[in-house]
């Protein structure tokens, strides 16, 4: 009898992934670099959904983000507060986007651990009790110096020496643990550096690839903190958002991996980006500055990831390359930064 019950429980747990989801969604960190755009995309594109914009004090939603749906104070380190939101809105899917990026996490490692790990376990426990699916992004930062840097495989060495990387590997492991042990439907991707004209990142190693566009449009000389020749994976935000939605809607029976899939669309180094920007702003000027923290972090990350598992298991395909992204970035930033008349 015990064996039958256990078998049934395991079957039910594994197949919880088949229940209807993505109806009532909580985005934790909805005002951040990814959350501000993901919340709006979910509200626009998931029919009949309720998408709750979770925020912390000091980062309240404004404008269309506030006006287009419910918003709740959702501090990832406050488990009772999160549980109350999940109950109130009958949440079935949680996007956990609360995190400190790599360079700032090096400056505040204990805070990074608290937000990234204590926060994650709060959400995973709530998801276990209340049957939610959970997406918590991983990153190129989950790799380290002894990871193969070219065509970085899906399954490979992950021994980062940054606190950001340590929390990202731990996030992958803990998310897989909750899936295998409790059947919590955890899924994720390893994001490259994300580039967008909407919300600026803060304290990341790949931020230079966003800031450079702002400097070019404003006609400012750009001080690049990443040395020439340092390749990193990058991705335009629309592709990243698409991945975050698509992975949560993927057929679970096809998923061999879960936490987390390599996804890739472009890899470049600062000189290639400079050359691309000069095509749009011929007077653009850039010089290098020494930033030992960011240099060391960038050196330890892959040059380019192999995303063949994501392509095979849930049909991941990016849309943008460096040129189409740059066209879109310049078009939007010229409008956004246009002097008021
Ligand atoms: N964009 C992040 C950072 O630079 C990496 O995932 O910290």
Bound molecules: serine
Radius of gyration: 20 Å
Secondary structure tally: strands: 14
Tell me the name of the CATH homologous superfamily of the largest domain: NAD(P)-binding Rossmann-like Domain
Helical residue percent? 40-55%
CATH topology of the largest domain: Rossmann fold
What assembly state would you assign to the polypeptide chains in this entry?
single chain
Q: How does CATH name the architecture of the largest domain?
A: 3-Layer(aba) Sandwich
The chain-level structural class is alpha/beta
Task: Describe the structure concisely for a colleague.
The chain has 341 residues and is of the alpha/beta class.
Structure notes:
The protein contains 13 helices and 14 strands. With 341 residues, it is of the alpha/beta class. The chain has two domains: 2-191 and 237-262, Rossmann fold; 194-233 and 265-336, UDP-galactose 4-epimerase, domain 1 (Alpha-Beta Complex). The strands form four sheets. It has a six-stranded parallel sheet with strand order 3-2-1-4-5-7, sandwiched between helices. Strand 1 (24-28), helix 2 and strand 2 form a beta-alpha-beta unit. The longest helix is centred in the middle third of the chain and has 22 residues, at 109-130. It binds serine (SER).
